[in-house]
Design brief:
By secondary structure, this protein is of the alpha/beta class. It is built from 24 helices and 18 strands. Strands 2-1-3-4-6-5 form a six-stranded parallel beta sheet, sandwiched between helices. Strands 9-8-7-10-11-12 form a six-stranded parallel beta sheet, with helices on both faces. Strands 14-13-15-16-18-17 form a six-stranded parallel beta sheet, with helices on both faces. The chain binds thiamine diphosphate and magnesium ion (MG).
Length: 577
C-alpha cells in the first residue's frame, strides 16, 4: 500500500521521539489512528476525556523533554484538548496535538464540528498548522515537531480526514533536533552585574523553574555570596533539598525566611523565575536583577535595576569565576534561622495530627512524605493540595514535585501522575487530589487506569468543598458561597470501578492506610481521606489586605447567621495553637 499522509505523520513523530499518543478517536482521526496502528511504534492511550490525556502528556513531556502526542476530533474533541495545552504552554512541555479537522470540501462553511484552529488555539499553541494538501506534510509536521521541542511548548497540526487518508507526496523527512543552545548575557552586562554584586553588602537569591539544570551552580553562588536562597513554587524541587542556604517559599503559599530575605537584602538576584505575585517582591529599596532565558520575562513582574537574557546555568557559571567571596554570613544566618523556626511551627500541626479529628491535611501530607520512597513523584491538584505539597512534602535529589503551578487548572494531579507512571513504570507516582478536582476529571479516567493497571496512588482530600476558593473568598472579605458539595464514599466508588479503595476517617488510621496504599502495585488505588475543611492555610507573610479581608469576611459571616462556620474555623485552628 502506498504511504498515506498519516503514515508520514507518525513516522516523523516517531523519529522525533514520540512514544505515546493520548486521546479519543473518531471521524477525521480514523485514518490517522489507522496509520498509528500500522506504524506500531506508538502506544495509543485511549482516555475517557481528551483533557485528561493532555495533562498526562504534560507530565511526560515536562519530565522527559521528549515530545508527546495528543489527539482529539473534530470540534468538540479538539476543544477538550485546550485547557491541557494551555498548561503545556505554561509548563513549557513539548506536546504535539493532532486535531481532527473537517473534510476540505466543507471547510469554511461552518459545517458540523468545524472549528477554526488558528483562532481557537491562538492563546495556547506556539505553532498551529492546517494540513490541507499532502505536499505540505513534511514541512508542516517538521515545523510542529521542531517548534515544540526547541521552543518547549505545545503545537497543533489540524488535519482533515480526507488529507490524512490521501496518498503521501514524497518520503517522511528526517528530523534533526539541535541540543539546547547554551547562551549567556554579553560580557558588558555581566561586568555590570559583577560590579553590583561586589558592591552589595547583602545578597538574596530567588529562583524558579529556570534553575532546573543549575542547582549546583546556584548553591555554589549562594555559598560564595552568603546569600539566602528563596524560591517560587516551580523552583522548590530544584533548590530546596540538601541546600544549607534554602529559606523557603514566598508568595501565597509561602513559608520560612524567604519573604524577609528577599525584601531586606541590598541586592536581589531573580534566577529563571516568572513569579507572578509582584506584591511579594521588594520595591525600589532593594536593587533587583533578573536573569531569564526568555526576554519576555524580563521586568514584567517588578521594575529592575538590571535585566539579563541568558541561561541560568551558563550565566551563574560565568559569575562564579568573577564575584568576590563575601565574608559576613550574618544576613544568611538570620533568614536560615527564621526558616528553621517556621519549620518547627509547621511541625507542630504534624505532631498534634494523630489526636485531631477530622484529619489535619498537614498531618496527612507529612506522613505521606515520610512514607513515600526516595524517588517518588508527587503531583498536586490546584487547590489546598498545592499548599500541603509545598509545605509538607519534602523533596529530594530523585523526588519530583509537579502540578499546574503556572496555569493553575484544577484536576491536573491524577492525569499528571498517570502520564508519569506510563513513562516511569514502577516508580511511585502519587496524585494528591482535591475532591473537586478528582470528581472533575480524575474519577472518569480512573477506568483508564484500571484497564492499564497503572499503580497510581490517588490521595483524595475529601473536604466536601472547593476549599481553596472558600479560603480565597474569606481572605477577600466575602461570605463563602458556592463552595460546598456532597461526596460519595470515594473508596467504595473506586472499588466499584475495579480499583483499590481505602477510606481513612480517623487520624490514627492515617499511617497504616497510606502504607497500604503505597504498597499496592497491581493497579490504581484511591485513598478517600476525610480531612478537616476548616484547616486554615495563611502564608508566613500575610499582606495587609488579606488580614482586612479575612476580618471583614468573619464579620459578614457573623452578621449573616454563619456563626457556626466562624466558630468551627476558630476552634479547629486554635486547638492546634
Ligand atoms: C478548571 C478550574 N476551575 C476553577 C478553578 C478555580 N479554583 C481554584 S482552586 C479551586 C477549588 C479546588 O477544590 P478541590 O479540588 O476540592 O480542592 P480543595 O481546595 O478543596 O482542597 C477552584 C474552584 C480552577 N483553578 N480551575
Ligand atoms: Mg475540596
Amino acid at each position: 500500500m502506498a504511504q498515506k499522509v498519516a503514515d508520514v505523520l507518525w513516522e516523523m513523530l516517531v523519529n522525533a521521539g514520540v512514544k505515546r499518543c493520548y486521546g479519543i478517536v473518531g471521524d477525521a482521526l480514523n485514518p490517522v489512528i489507522d496509520a498509528l496502528r500500522r506504524n506500531g511504534k506508538v502506544d495509543f492511550v485511549h482516555v475517557r476525556n481528551e483533557e485528561y490525556g493532555v495533562f498526562a502528556a504534560v507530565a511526560e513531556a515536562y519530565f522527559t523533554g521528549e515530545p508527546v502526542a495528543v489527539c482529539g476530533t473534530a470540534g468538540p474533541g479538539v476543544v477538550h484538548l485546550f485547557n491541557g495545552l494551555m498548561d503545556a504552554r505554561k509548563e513549557r512541555a513539548p506536546v504535539i496535538a493532532i486535531a481532527g479537522d473537517v473534510e476540505t470540501r466543507v471547510m469554511d462553511t461552518s459545517s458540523l464540528e468545524e472549528l477554526n484552529p488558528y483562532q481557537f488555539f491562538q492563546a495556547a499553541s506556539l505553532y498551529t498548522a492546517r494540513l490541507i494538501n499532502p505536499a505540505q506534510a513534511q514541512s508542516v509536521i517538521g515545523m510542529a515537531i521542531r517548534t515544540s521541542i526547541i521552543e518547549k511548548g505545545p503545537t497543533v497540526i489540524s488535519i482533515p480526514g480526507d488529507v490524512a487518508a490521501a496518498d503521501a507526496v514524497g518520503e517522511p523527512a528526517a528530523i534533526s533536533i539541535p541540543a539546547p543552545p547554551v547562551f549567556r548575557p554579553s560580557n558588558f552586562d555581566l561586568s555590570r552585574l559583577i560590579e553590583m554584586i561586589n558592591k552589595a553588602g547583602t545578597v538574596a537569591i530567588f529562583g524558579g523553574d529556570g534553575c532546573r539544570d543549575a542547582r549546583d551552580e546556584v548553591i555554589e553562588l549562594a555559598g560564595r555570596l552568603k546569600a539566602p536562597v528563596g524560591f517560587a513554587l516551580r523552583g522548590k524541587q530544584w533548590l530546596e533539598h540538601d541546600n544549607p542556604y534554602a529559606v523557603g517559599l514566598t508568595g501565597l503559599l509561602g513559608y520560612g525566611g524567604a519573604y524577609g530575605a528577599i525584601n531586606s537584602a541590598d541586592l536581589l538576584l531573580m534566577l529563571g523565575t516568572d513569579f507572578p505575585f509582584s506584591e511579594f517582591l521588594p520595591g525600589s529599596r532593594v536593587k533587583k536583577v533578573q536573569i531569564d532565558q526568555n526576554p519576555k520575562h524580563i521586568g514584567r513582574r517588578t521594575s529592575l535595576d538590571l535585566g539579563l537574557v541568558g541561561d541560568v546555568k551558563a550565566t551563574v557559571r560565568a559569575l562564579l569565576e568573577n564575584v568576590d567571596e563575601k565574608p559576613d554570613d550574618r544576613f544568611l544566618r538570620k533568614y536560615v534561622a527564621e526558616t528553621e523556626s517556621f519549620a518547627e511551627l509547621k511541625q507542630h500541626y504534624v505532631d498534634k495530627g494523630p489526636d485531631v479529628k477530622p484529619i489535619r491535611p498537614e498531618y496527612l501530607a507529612a506522613t505521606l512524605s515520610d512514607l513515600a520512597s526516595d524517588d517518588a513523584m508527587f503531583f498536586a491538584d490546584t487547590g489546598t493540595a498545592v499548599i500541603w505539597l509545598a509545605r509538607h512534602i519534602n523533596g529530594g535529589k530523585n523526588r519530583r514535585l509537579f502540578g499546574s503551578f503556572a496555569w493553575a487548572s484544577m484536576a491536573n494531579a491524577a492525569p499528571n501522575a498517570f502520564g508519569a507512571q506510563l513513562t516511569y513504570p514502577g516508580r511511585q507516582t502519587i496524585a494528591i487530589c482535591g475532591d473537586g478536582g478528582f470528581t472533575m476529571l480524575g474519577m472518569g479516567d480512573l477506568l483508564t487506569q484500571v484497564e492499564r493497571k497503572t499503580p497510581v496512588i490517588h490521595i483524595v482530600l475529601n473536604n466536601g468543598s472547593l476549599d481553596f476558593v472558600n479560603i480565597e473568598q474569606q481572605e477577600a472579605g466575602y461570605v463563602p458561597y458556592g463552595v460546598g458539595f456532597k461526596n460519595p464514599n470515594f473508596a467504595a466508588v473506586a472499588e466499584a470501578m475495579g480499583a483499590k479503595g481505602i477510606r481513612i476517617e480517623d487520624p490514627d488510621a492515617v499511617r497504616d492506610g497510606l502504607t497500604e496504599a503505597l504498597a499496592h502495585n497491581s493497579g490504581p488505588v484511591v485513598v478517600d481521606a476525610i480531612v478537616d475543611p476548616y484547616a486554615l492555610a495563611l502564608p508566613s507573610h500575610v499582606p495587609l489586605h488579606t488580614m482586612k479581608g479575612y476580618t471583614l469576611s468573619v464579620a459578614k459571616q457573623v452578621l449573616t447567621g454563619r456563626m457556626d462556620a466562624v466558630i468551627k474555623t476558630m476552634e479547629h485552628n486554635i486547638r492546634l495553637v
